[in-house]
């Protein structure tokens, strides 16, 4: 079976598994990778960019290498190749768990239980929940849903279409390393530099596809594109900017502004500020539904693109024969 068809069948099966089951309950491979990366950090850490680059190479390179070996071992056994792709896609894609956590916070806000919403928010993002009121929590959730639609779904599918199982694994490894060491804490400002920059590069195509699909699927395409063009470049993240701006325009809300994390405060530009309104608790459900539509469309786009590329490559091989 051609590699493009393996990806098409496997990625589709993996996203169906995610929709039905959510993340694996026990022995999650991403959690195992995180523990291994933490052990590598404990050995390599110095306040030095070179050591951080070595950490990134060892962890991400090791994960991609192991995935490549596994894919190579089953490449002549189509059923196993599809099963490996499906299992990998299920492990690295987290759209259902993202929606579940967002809805849990939204449900607490809807019930008027602000303390329960604050207790649940850290499951979704790194904001300081005690510094947020109800609208602030709702905004944090919508922003997290937007950004993680790219990080937890679309970006993985893009790299899976490009590189198969190693692409799926590599993207999740890079994204996980960025979450672990890429933030600008005193310990990781220099050590995490390589992981943060690599994540920016790896996330670039998925973020733009996510923004485009949010504009197409959100019901307000002109507003989404306008917010994307006007405000995305003002965001400190080159990838979160387009995604959050497009979601803001698609949902008709304002995102960004002052954000509080543990021990620090960030003042970010407001996205869709002129045309949007403040986020409400009910907007969480709208964001989750938009995220699900974007994920489904991304699967279609990535599968179609991979099949088209495979068909073109097969035609060229026949022409040379």
Automatic annotation (TrEMBL):
Keywords: Cell membrane, Cobalamin biosynthesis, Membrane, Transmembrane, Transmembrane helix. It is found in: Cell membrane. Converts cobyric acid to cobinamide by the addition of aminopropanol on the F carboxylic group. One of its GO terms (biological process) is cobalamin biosynthetic process. Signal peptide: none annotated. Pfam families: CobD_Cbib. One of its GO terms (cellular component) is plasma membrane. Belongs to the CobD/CbiB family. This is Cobalamin biosynthesis protein CobD. It comes from Streptomyces violaceoruber. Pathway: Cofactor biosynthesis; adenosylcobalamin biosynthesis. It is a multi-pass membrane protein. Its main location: membrane. The keyword Lyase does not apply.
